[in-house]
Specification:
Length: about 130
Amino acid sequence: MFCLETTFLIDLLKGKKDAIDVYIKIRDSKLYTTSISAWELLRGPKLVGKEEEFKVAVEMLENLEILPFSFKSAQIAVEIEDSLRKKGMEINLIDVLIAAIAIEHNLKLVTRDEHFSRIDGLEAINYSSEQNSG
């Protein structure tokens, strides 16, 4: 079972080959995303007035099970943040929340953001290549 992170969803919507290749491999599995990634995916096009992109994003999200940020997620997120700080490593707090939800549900996180690999207890599947790195 896989949790599709924001970068993956965006790249899939943009038709990026690496994302499509990974999707083809996992599409028969149960696919999830987080409420945080759903917000990120919808926020961009809505705030800049790209209504067609917004509608396409809504359609994509309607085909996924969207997992909420729960009290258990909050507890996991605090542990992640504490662990990273103690190691002198920090990542975007939004990404900490996404990782916590994936860990709570024991899901593999599909992303192109390599910093997720710093999080203990999270299995991150990184599909990045030179064209998708960033």
